[in-house]
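Recap slide: Phenylalanine--tRNA ligase beta subunit, sequence and predicted structure.
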Amino acid sequence: MPRIPLTWLAEHTELTAGASAQQVATDLSRVGLEEEALFGAQVTGPLVVGRVLELVKEPQKNGKTINWVRVDVGPEHNEALDNPKDPQPGEERPSRGIICGAHNFEGGDLVVVSLPGTVLPGDFAIAARKTYGHTSDGMICSGDELGLGEDPAGEDGIIVLGRGHAEGLTGEPGDDAIALLGLADEVVEINVTPDRGYCFSMRGVAREYSHATGADYTDPVSTVEIPQADGAGVAVQLRDEAPLNGVPGCSRFVALEVRGVDPEAQTPRWMARRLTLAGMRPISLIVDVTNYVMLDLGQPLHAYDADKVVAPIVVRRARAGEKLTTLDDVTRPLDPEDLLITDTDGERLLGIAGVMGGESTEVSASTENIVLEAATFHPISIARSARRHRLPSEASKRFERGVDPQLPLVAAYRAAQLIVEHGGGEIAASVTDEGSAPAPAAAISLPLGAAERVVGIAYTAEQVRGSLEKIGCLVEDGTEGTLAVTPPSWRPDLSLREDLIEEIARLVGYATIPSILPTAPGGRGLTRAQRARRAANRALAEAGLVEVSSYPFVGEGIFDALRYGADDARRGAVRLVNPLADDEPLLRSALLQTLLPVARRNLGRGEEAVAIFQLGTTSLSRGEGASAPVPAPAQRPSDAELEAILDALPLQTRSLAAVVGGASGPASWQGEVAPWGWADAFELARRTAAAVGAQVEVRQVEQAPFHPGRAGELRVLGADGESTVIGHAGELHPGVVKEFGLPARTSALELDLEALIAAAPAVVVAAPVPTYPLAKEDFAFVVDQDVPASAVEAAIVVGIGDLAESVHLFDVFTGEQIGEGKKSLAFAVRLRSSDGTLTAEQIGEARSRCIAAVDAAVGGVLRA
């Protein structure tokens, strides 16, 4: 995110008097530039200019020599008398005594002194302290200690103001050094959206600040003097033989030479300070100037050592097998889509265009002659290269968002002039400007009433025209009440009528758009399905389970891990075109496919038992032949097209799944608790069904990933009287338990929650409170092994009729006493009448009807 020093911003626009970083951030937020962070002054307290009166070198026992320095820091800060332990040499002149270990200054020099009470960068507080036998009453500061970088005067870095090492700085003892060195500068860090790349420059942010406050704005481009060129300079050839979508990777390339630069010239302190505040590290004059111009104007630049460049410079795509060692000392294999800067007629690689340069022609400490490159690159090409090589450089950030194509020549001359001003040398009379700036964008037709129609506010014609002209658009009268609007070169994001309307709303002010809340419709708020889903979740949570959430992505190996058959429909998962992970390219077709890995992860982190559930979506593909038509964007799709699109969508439903295994609760003084089992899975299914107002019937089946003998399918009775399978529950297969590292005999359930809710009656009839006592009867029927208990239960209900209040299976028995292929099912039946207390005759008749009904329905015989 760009950092904006306020003093730099003030060079291009007039800041309001006494504007703070907070106020500037507030102003910028009104035009859509959100505050990311604020940075106050890095140095506070009494930091002053001091003059060295006397310097005494004192060798120490450790071999080090320190300086005992008397410094005049002005009448306001000098001590009237010396410390008794530190008698002042020479005449009685007010001053301060300071210990200093640097040796690049001498008597008479002007230096920067931090007095007690000063706080330096890094929250380093200065105080008087006893050291080397003296009381050091402050500190003589280096550039590093003030956050300015090393001082050019010497390796120790003490800032010497009085001998010309910091150009343009003057002062007298006692003067405020914070203001002198610009250390009170505040910085605003802003968040720039991808469509507003022009705000990655002081030029762009200053323009936006002007829009927000109405302050005067001076375009820094207008202050750059561009001389008449005397012919072409370095030969440049644009040879993009594989343009992306027909658009060349480089449309314009400017090369400008500067010769005779002093290689020892230092970056001026004000420029180094601004770069530091903007978040960049000063390196050398030439590199710093290119970075400074990039931050100021928004045009990335690159400097080559001219003595190492062998013309012509060729811009081309990479060839198969080519490699480049970039400035970060990493050798990178190149992709044929990478756009390169080369020389020696295209044979030697100089850098990845718009991303990072190479080692072969980089500027060094001995460079005297340079070639400045300023180019216009295709945003998509640069973005792909930056991501491919994981090189999000400052240049690529700007190029991939779109750089003003009119800037290259201006930026090259601005950088050259700064280099000559501070490092000497001469700008070549010739300049290379290969290619051309892209043609201006076509005018956009904007009806005067379009903004009011979209935003809902009556904008005047003056507001519409004025807003567009303010951002740099050329606005001309069109036909029939329209405007012909041509966006400026630095706004490639303005391509549609709606883009212009957004700018009008932004500049007139979002605050002028009223907030109108929609009227809430009458009713209970939640739909029946929403209430049912919440009730199902609550039922499982009340049963002691924890709700979790898992990503819906799975790999193909999950089907084998869950022991699906080769023809299992759940193998028909939807494949993603652009998956988040290559090893998980499919959408889950069953909820247990992602819930079981969650259980494994929890157990792997120290849990000893698992009791989790999830409500989520599952998807099934309609097959390879299902493809949706792509309707034309100019008009609404036809009904047939919409129906074809819907028919091609995957089959999706909301499912509910749970996994339980291990101890069903914490141990206590009573001993270990019972583990979760297959019966608990069925009970959880019944709880869920009861919560939504439905009833489930269980029938034993074999279904992966469940145990073949301890699992069953869950059925509900539809409105047509037919039962439908909505899910399965039971103990997991031992192989699945082992695959996922689950506790022994872990059980699970999964059901189609939407189908369950649909099967529940829409209207719930309240049951009357019984006023007569109930009668209890137990029945044990011997039936064939394959007869489901639910069929026997249904026969009992039919036989007894309205007197049957509840029927509950409490025992299943098999053995020699029953006979081979037989089982005994014992039911507890509760009888009650709403008309009166049941008599013995009524109970006996009900019992007879029950026995007859079971015999007729399933061939069951009452066990003796």
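Residues 742 and 763 are 41 Å apart (CA to CA).
Residues 80-91, 164-168 have pLDDT under 50 and may be disordered.
(End of recap.)
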